[in-house]
Specification:
The protein is mainly alpha-helical and 134 residues long. It has six helices and no strands. Helices cover 72% and strands 0% of the residues.
């Protein structure tokens, strides 16, 4: 674990010991800190992968937070017990939502496929969309 991640987990443990979650036994504190450490490490690894994609795509650092929010949304979806088809459909909806908020579709798709290994259907070209509208 990195120093930053260790410090985050230690701060969480201190908050628990000071009573932020009520009175807990030593075993409950240890269990919660262990689960929190695993989740924090997973989140940190995902955000590092997302940052790499964003840097390669030329996204300015000021725009990183909305992409990180998108990745957290996909992380939550991927941890749910749903079918692959449902996951792909929900991911496509999330991509459309974040594109409407101003993010780049190709970058969002790269995050979904490269970080979370979620396959997405290719969007129709403008010609295909025009033909389908006839």
């Amino acid at each position: 674990m990195s120093d930053r991640l260790t410090r985050i987990v230690e701060n969480y443990e201190l908050k628990l010991r000071l009573g932020s979650a009520g009175r807990l036994t030593e075993d409950e504190i240890s269990a919660r800190v262990g689960r929190y450490g695993i989740a924090a490490a997973r989140e940190d690894a995902v955000l590092n992968e997302v940052r790499q994609i964003l840097c390669c795509a030329g996204i300015v650092p000021m725009m990183f937070p909305p992409y990180h929010a998108f990745s957290r949304e996909l992380g939550k979806l991927s941890r749910q017990d749903i079918s692959v088809e449902t996951l792909e459909c929900e991911t496509a909806i999330a991509v459309a939502k974040w594109v409407a908020r101003g993010l780049e579709q190709c970058v969002l798709r790269a995050i979904a496929t490269n970080v979370f290994n979620i396959g997405l259907p290719t969007p129709p070209t403008s010609e295909e969309a025009a033909q389908a509208g006839r």
